[in-house]
Specification:
Strand content: under 5%
Helix content: over 70%
Oligomer: single chain
Number of helices: 13
Number of strands: 0
Structural class: mainly alpha
Distance between the termini: 26 Å
Shape: globular
Radius of gyration: 19 Å
Largest sheet: none
């Protein structure tokens, strides 16, 4: 593919803008449906849009080959994402203010570095340790609403689920890093097996309600722009850019844009402690990435 830095920035900024909106979309959707209902309907929506993309790209024949050559990996990835990961994440958003859940969720990159030590035989650097202290210090500030020394948590279970979601997402990317083949084909196959698992779980728990028209729109938005199309935009940006680092740094805009959307669309009053804690988390992640790039 011919490189085009200007077009790469456009695709990346669209992806960042869409990802910035999904925390608000989660919270709005969860006012109208349960976490399980949102997982099921948004995953179906994502499966549909990914299928349309593969049809347009004439890659549908690759689906059977992808599943046949690595069935256990496809199954395990589908169980993690979308099934368990989004069930845990949506429950966290159900229990916590959106500004808290989304800030904690951004620490998944740090969790990935720590789990890489265990599963990928990577070395833990001094920068990883410092980044962890800074980032999880930010999480503590968020969880205590600006009173970290009080150790009085606003919702312990919600914070636990938000942190658990970072663990699951990091595990997903570790397993996914060993997957061969086209990434969009792989994502479709993961959602195909994931939707089947979610469907079996829905039957096991006794079914779910049909959503209202408004709830359906919210679930489709989540499925399209959190799980589906945005991933394709980001891949296009990576393929078109001359410098992955320049594109990757744009992702640091997302959490702050997300706070703006949360304030205006969800109606949450953004706490100064959230802004400060989010700043700490981003600083920690930036330091970690900067150290890895300079020592690569």
């Amino acid at each position: 593919m011919k490189k085009n830095q200007s077009l790469a920035y456009q695709y990346a900024l669209v992806a960042v803008l869409l990802w910035s909106s999904v925390a608000s979309a989660f919270k709005i959707a969860l006012r109208m449906m349960s976490p399980l209902e949102l997982v099921f309907y948004s995953s179906l929506s994502s499966l549909f849009v990914l299928g349309i993309i593969l049809m347009y790209q004439k890659k549908l024949p690759q689906i059977f080959l992808h599943v046949r050559t690595q069935p256990l990996r496809v199954l395990s990835l589908g169980i993690i994402n979308p099934f368990v990961y989004y069930l845990v994440l949506f429950r966290a958003y159900d229990l916590l203010p959106a500004q808290e859940a989304q800030a904690i969720n951004y620490t998944w990159a740090l969790m990935l570095a720590y789990l890489g030590v265990v599963f990928l035989n990577q070395k833990l650097s001094f920068a990883d340790i410092i980044a962890g202290i800074i980032c999880y210090g930010g999480v503590l500030i968020i969880a205590t609403k600006g009173s970290p020394f009080s150790l009085e948590f606003s919702n312990v279970y919600g914070v636990f689920l938000a942190l658990l979601s970072t663990f699951l997402w990091a595990i997903y990317w570790i397993v996914n890093s060993k997957t061969k083949g086209d990434p969009i084909v792989g994502l479709f196959c993961n959602f195909l097996t994931g939707v089947l698992c979610i469907g079996l779980y829905v039957i096991f728990v006794g079914g779910i309600a049909l959503p209202s028209f408004e709830a359906s729109l919210a679930a489709v938005y989540v499925g399209f722009f959190e799980m589906g199309i945005t991933f394709v935009f980001w891949l296009k940006a990576i393929n078109l850019t001359y410098s992955v680092a320049k594109i990757s740094n744009l992702i640091f805009l997302s959490p702050f844009l997300s706070l703006v959307f949360i304030h205006f669309f969800v109606g949450e009053q953004i706490l100064p402690s959230t802004i400060f804690a989010l700043f700490l988390i981003i600083v920690g992640l930036f330091l970690q990435q900067y150290y890895r790039k300079t020592n690569a």
